[in-house]
């Protein structure tokens, strides 16, 4: 593989198991604190810049859903790990020239934020794989990543995506500006939840809220997340 994964040597299968049980403990505690039933929140293991060996260990430790940010890296890993039957989620910014790889190798895409990309994904989805499950990425704080549809343009995008034959709309995703302060962390998550609640009457398929990462999953679960995306606290630090 072309990619270098320099921190992986620090990790053993035992470390990984301990990290995964600690994340599961944090998720259960946050569900409980929010009076939500156990199992309300699913865990997506973000494996970008981590080796296929670590992904195999994580699978042995019980994980089945993996998130990647780079189309080529995801395609290579999905091919090398095809024997495991994993579920792949593309969560990174999407360039037009990468939509074919994403349409072919992922099961879910969390980062659709414009119609042109949605159209290409639908056009390029191999029919034998069934519809691609899609979350629309919404901008919930000004300084956050450049990606994400503005909340006031979301409904138009939803209506357009609903017409695409090979996409299945499943919910919303956000990446807020980072904050260390738990009360501040909750604000953009609450914003996304409010947006979802305002739309779900007319669009009941928008049930998934993909929000929360290593440093803010408790805040996200308190505000209604049902899918957290965790990289660092499972696999360790990454070079960027
Ligand atoms: C890298 C990444 C994550 C995981 O972040 P950690 O802080 O390592 O848990 C989650 N979501 C997206 C979109 C990412 O790019």
Span between termini: 18 Å
Secondary-structure class: alpha/beta
Strand content: 15-25%
Number of strands: 8
3D architecture notes:
The protein is of the alpha/beta class. It has one domain: Alanine racemase (TIM Barrel, Alpha-Beta Barrel). Helix content is 39%, strand content 16%. The protein has 9 helices and 8 strands. The protein has an 8-stranded parallel beta sheet with strand order 7-6-5-4-3-2-1-8. Strand 2, helix 3 and strand 3 form a beta-alpha-beta unit. Helix 3 packs parallel to helix 4 and helix 4 packs across helix 5. The longest helix has 21 residues. The two termini are 18 Å apart. Bound molecules: pyridoxal-5'-phosphate. Pyridoxal-5'-phosphate binds next to strand 8 and helix 9.
Keywords:
240 residues; alpha/beta; TIM Barrel; eight-stranded parallel β-sheet; globular; binds pyridoxal-5'-phosphate
Give the secondary structure arrangement, pairings included.
Layout: H1 13-33, E1 42-46, H2 52-60, E2 65-68, H3 71-80, E3 87-90, H4 99-105, E4 108-112, H5 115-124, E5 132-137, H6 154-161, E6 167-173, H7 182-199, E7 208-210, H8 217-222, E8 227-230, H9 232-235
Parallel strand pairs: 1-2, 1-8, 2-3, 3-4, 4-5, 5-6, 6-7
Helix pairs in contact: 3-4, 4-5
The chain binds pyridoxal-5'-phosphate.
């Amino acid at each position: 593989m072309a990619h270098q994964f320099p921190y992986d040597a620090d990790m053993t299968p035992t470390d990984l198991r301990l990290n995964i049980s600690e994340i599961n403990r944090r998720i259960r505690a946050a569900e409980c604190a929010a009076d939500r039933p156990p199992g309300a929140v699913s865990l997506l293991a973000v494996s970008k810049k981590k080796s296929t060996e670590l992904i195999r260990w994580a699978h042995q430790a019980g994980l089945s859903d993996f998130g990647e940010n780079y189309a080529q890296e995801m395609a290579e890993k999905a091919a090398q790990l095809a024997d495991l039957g994993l579920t792949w989620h593309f969560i990174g910014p999407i360039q037009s020239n990468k939509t074919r790889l994403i349409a072919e190798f992922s099961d879910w895409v969390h980062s659709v934020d414009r119609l042109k990309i949605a159209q290409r994904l639908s056009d390029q989805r191999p029919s034998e794989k069934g519809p691609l499950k899609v979350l629309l990425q919404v901008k919930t704080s000004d300084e956050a990543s450049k990606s994400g549809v503005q909340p006031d343009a979301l409904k138009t995008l939803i209506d357009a995506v609903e017409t695409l034959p090979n996409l299945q709309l499943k919910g919303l995703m956000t990446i807020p500006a980072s904050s260390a302060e738990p009360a501040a962390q909750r604000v953009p998550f609450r914003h996304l939840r409010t947006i979802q609640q305002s739309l779900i009457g007319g669009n009941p398929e928008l049930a998934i809220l993909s929000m929360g990462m290593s440093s803010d999953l408790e805040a996200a679960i308190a505000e209604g997340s049902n899918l957290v995306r965790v990289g660092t606290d499972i696999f360790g630090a990454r070079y960027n």
